[in-house]
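Obj.: predict assembly geometry.
Materials: sequence records (below).
Method: joint structure prediction, all chains together.
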Amino acid sequence: MPRYTAPVRDMQFVLHDVLKVGEAGIPGYDDLDPATTRAILSEAGKLAQDVLAPLNRVGDAQGCVLRDGTVRTPDGFGAAFEQLRDGGWTALDCDPAYGGQGLPCLLATAVAEILSAANMALNMYQGLTHGACNAIQAHGSAAQKAMYLPPMIRCEWGGTMNLTEPHCGTDLGLIRTRAEPRDDGSYAITGTKIWISAGEHDLCDNIIHLVLARLPQAPEGVKGISLFLVPKILVNDDGTLGARNALACTGLESKMGIHGNATCVMAYEGATGWLVGAPHQGMRAMFTMMNEARLGVGLQGYAQGEVAYQNARDFARDRLQGRAATGSATPDRPADPIIVHPDVRRGLMDQKALTEGARAFVFWGASLIDRARRCDDAQAEALISLLTPVIKGFLTDKGFETCVLAQQTPGGAGFTRDLGLEQFVRDARITMVYEGTNGIQSVDLVGRKLAADGGKPLMAFFDLVKDFIAQASGDAAFDAQFLSPLKAASGDLQTAAMFFLNKGMTSPNDALAGSYDFMHLFGHVCVGLMWSRMALAAHQGMEAGENADFLTAKLDTGRYYMARHLPATKLHLARIESGAAPVMALDEAAF
Amino acid sequence: MPRYTAPVRDMQFVLHDVLKVGEAGIPGYDDLDPATTRAILSEAGKLAQDVLAPLNRVGDAQGCVLRDGTVRTPDGFGAAFEQLRDGGWTALDCDPAYGGQGLPCLLATAVAEILSAANMALNMYQGLTHGACNAIQAHGSAAQKAMYLPPMIRCEWGGTMNLTEPHCGTDLGLIRTRAEPRDDGSYAITGTKIWISAGEHDLCDNIIHLVLARLPQAPEGVKGISLFLVPKILVNDDGTLGARNALACTGLESKMGIHGNATCVMAYEGATGWLVGAPHQGMRAMFTMMNEARLGVGLQGYAQGEVAYQNARDFARDRLQGRAATGSATPDRPADPIIVHPDVRRGLMDQKALTEGARAFVFWGASLIDRARRCDDAQAEALISLLTPVIKGFLTDKGFETCVLAQQTPGGAGFTRDLGLEQFVRDARITMVYEGTNGIQSVDLVGRKLAADGGKPLMAFFDLVKDFIAQASGDAAFDAQFLSPLKAASGDLQTAAMFFLNKGMTSPNDALAGSYDFMHLFGHVCVGLMWSRMALAAHQGMEAGENADFLTAKLDTGRYYMARHLPATKLHLARIESGAAPVMALDEAAF
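Observations (raw C-alpha cells):
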C-alpha cells in the first residue's frame, strides 16, 4: 500500500527562501509568514496522508458506477469529500465576497499539490468546481455570481466544463451543441458532450455545468461559440433546489487511470441554461481561465511524480539485493539495500531533481498569476501566458516520466497493483492529454505565445535569466556548476526562438515541426533557472547558518539536474534545426 | 477495437535486402528464399490478425482466474493456442530430432514479432515453453530430452523458468529453495517461487518447471545453485502422465498489464524433480539461454510499438481536426485529417523510425545467434553477447516510449480502453522489467560485456561500423545524411567506452553511474547503423528499379532517425562524462 507524506519543508523552502514571498510586495503575501504557511500545509498534509491517500487505491479498484443516470463514487469518497469541504480546503483562494478565504493562488497551489498527490481522482472533483467558479467569477452576471458562487465555493455544488463533442475535441470550431433562446431569457441547450470530468456524481447536491454551444445564426467556427450555465437541478430564486433539468449522464468512459473520477458522456436535451458573458464570446471566457487551469494540470503531473518518488525511495531503502561495487555497505546483512547501487540512485535522483524543480517552477508560475491579478501587472500576465504551455506540457511529460522511473526502481514489484506505483503511472498519463494535449500546448507556444506582442514577453524572459545570472554571479564553483550551464541552455533557447521567428513567416511547418522540442527546451531552461535560484538560496541559507544537511541536499540535487538534465537543450536544438523536411517528407500513404 | 496487420513487406526488406540472407552463408539460410519467407510470414500474419489480435482485449479484460489451484485463461485462449500448436508455430526453430522444424532463429524471430504484436500475453505461453526447451536441449540428459522435448516442442506441455523468490529477484545468490537428494536419483524440491509466468494454466496437459534450488551443503551465493526439472504431473517411463506432483500455484499477481498471462506464486512442497546439468551449475545453465531470451524480450517491446503505431496511424488518417498550416489539405471536408499537422507527424515518425530500426536490429541479432550456432562462430557469439543487453534494455525502453507516443496521437481517445492503445502501453511496460530489469542490463553491459575478452568484441563492433562506413561511402548526400552522423555517434560511443575502461579499474561507480546512458548511447549507434544499412539497401534497390515508393519511404524514415534521434548520443555522452559525483553525492538519509 503506497504512502504519502506532504513535503512541507521543501515547499517552505520554495515559498520563503526562493520566492521570498514576504518581500514580494504582492497584496496578501504579507499574511504568508513561515509559521502560517507551515501550519496550513501541515494541516493539509495530515488530511492528505490520513484520509485521502488511503482511498487512492480504493478509488482505482472500484471506479465509478453509473446506474439509472446516477454515478456512485467509490466507497469513502463521500466522507472524505465532506472533510475537504468542512475544512474549508475548497475555498482557499476564492473571493471573500462569496465565501472564499481570499488567500493567494500561490498558497492554494501548494495545498493543491498535497491533495492531488494523495488522491488525484478525488481532488479533481473540487479542482473542476474551482475552475467553473473562476469562469463564473470572471464572466458571470452579478445575479449569477450571487446565486451560484457561494454553494460552489463551499463545494456543496460541483462544477464542470463541457467542451468536447464526439466529433471534436481540439478543434472546438466544429461544435454542434445548440442553444435556442426562450422568451424568459433562458436558452434550451441541446447536444452531446463527452469527456466531462465529474459530469455526474454523488458528492454534491447539485452540479453546475458550463457548456459551450452555438446560438442560432452564430458565425461559423470558434467565433460563434457561446458559454452557458446549465444546472443539473434548477435553482429557485431563493437559492433552494427546484426541478431536475433536462440533462443526463448517459455513459462513463472506461479509462487507463483516474478511475475514481467519473468521465461522463452528457446528453443535453433542451436543458435550461443561461448565457454567461456576451454572445459568441465563449472561447474567450474559456481561455481567460486557461493559465490557471493549465498550471493546475502541470501541478498534477509532478504531484504524481512526488508521491511515486516517495514510495520508490522507501522501497530502495528497504530492499536488500547485491552488494555495493565499492565494498559492502551493510556487511552484517545478507545484502545491501538497493539504494547503494549507482543505477538505482540515478533513477531516484532523476525523480527527485525533476519533481523539486517542477514544484519551484509551478510555484513561481502561481506567484506570477498572483502578481498579474493582485498588482494588475501586465508584464506578469504576459509572462505567465508565455510560460503556461511550458508548465502544462513539459511538466506533465516529466511528471509521467518520473512515475515511470519510480515504477522501475522496485523492478517486478513496480508492475504489481499491490505496491501502487503502477497506478501513479496510469493516473499521471491523463495529464499529458487533457486541458489541451501536450502537442497542442507546443503549438500554442510556438504558434501564438512566441510572437505575442512582438515577442516582448519572450525577450522579458531572456532578460530575467540574464539579470539573474548577472546578480548571482561571483562564486567560481556556483558559476561553473549552475550559471554557465544555465547561460548555455538559455542561449540554445534563443537560437531556437530565432530559428522559429525567421521561419515562422515563410514556412510555418518549420516552426511547427520543432514545436514539441521547443516546449521541452524551454522547460529545461525554466527548471534550470529554478534550480539555480534554489541553489543560490541554499548558499545564502548556509551562510546564514541554517540547516546544512537540508541545504546541501538541495545543492547536490541541483547539481545533478544541471549536469545530467540540462544538456538536453542541445539535443532539442539539433532536432529543431533539422527543420520540417524530416518530419514532413513522408507521403501520407507511406505511413 | 485495435487492429493489426503483419508488416510482411518490411520484414522481407530486412531479411532479403538488408541482411541478404540468401548470401549469408549460414547453414539453413538457403531455404529462406523470398517466396518461402513471404509465405510463412503471411500465414503467421493471417493467424495473428484473425485469431490472436481479436483476443487481445478479451485477455486484458478477463485476465486469468485461480480457483482450487487451477488457473483458467481468458475465453478463447484455449482454442487459439490449439491453432498455434496445430499450425506448427511453436516448433519452428526447434531440433528436428525432437519434432522441431529446424528453421533458423531468424525466421522464428520474425514470426514471433507477428504473434507477439497481435497478442503478447497469449504468445508468452509458448515463448516461455520455448525457453525451457532450449535449456533442456542445452543441458539435459539424453533421457530427459527424449522424454520432455517432443511434447514441449509441440506445446502439448508447457514450460516455465523459476528463479525469483519473495526476498530475491536480481540477486539470485540469496535463493533459499532446497533440493534434497532421494535414493532413486530424484530430488525433493521445497521452496516458494514468485513471478512465474505461465506457472499454471489450462492450455497444456502438463507443465514442466525448471527450478533453481540449492543442494545440501552447496556453496554460498550463485556458485551453489543448481537447476531442476520439476513436472506439474509426473511422467511415467512410457511418456504417459502419472501422479500429480507436490507443487501448486498458490496465488496470481494482480498486474498493470499482460493480464492474459498468469503470473504465479508457486509453492514446491517436497516436489519430485531431477537435476539438469551438473550440480551447482544452475546459473550457467540459465545464462546459456539468456541471449536468445533477452532478444525475445527486446522483440516484445518493439512488437507492441508496431501494433500501437498501426492503430495511431489509422486514427490520424481518419480523425478530422483543424486545418493544415500551409492551407487546407481537404477543403471539401469540415476539417483536415490530423495527419497533416506537423506535430502529429512528428509523433508518428518517431514511432515508425523507432519500430523499423528496432526490427532491423533484432533481426540482425537473431542472424548473429544463427551464425554463432550454425557456423560455430565464436566472434558472432561474442558480438551477440555484447549486444544482448542493448537489444533488451534499449529496445524495450524505446518500445514502451513508442506505445506512449502512439497513445498520445489520438489525444483523449488514447486514454480509453475502447481504442486499445492504453493496453499496449501497459503490456509493453513489463518488458522493461522482466528477464533482468533494464538497469541490470546496463550493469551487465558496462560491468561485464564491455571488458569481456580484453574488450575484443567491442573493438570488433567498432571495426564493423568503420568497415561499413568505408564500403558504403561515395554518394555525397548519403554520406552527409547517414554516414557522417553514424560516424559521429560511433565516435561518441568510443569516447564513452574509453571513459569507462579508464575509470572502471579505479572507480567502478563512475562507470556504473553512466551505465544506463551508455546502454542508450550504444542502442542509438546500433539503430543508426541499421538505418544506414537499410538506406543503402534502399538506394541499391532503387538503382535496380525496384518499388520506388516503398524504398523512398525507407530513406525518408531513415533520414528522420538520423536527424532527430541519433543526436541523442551527445546527450548521453555528456551525462556519462559527468561521472559518479552527481549521482552519488547525496547522503542516503537525504533522499
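Conclusions so far: Chain B touches chain A through 95 residues (CB under 8 Å).
To do: check interface contacts against the pulldown list.
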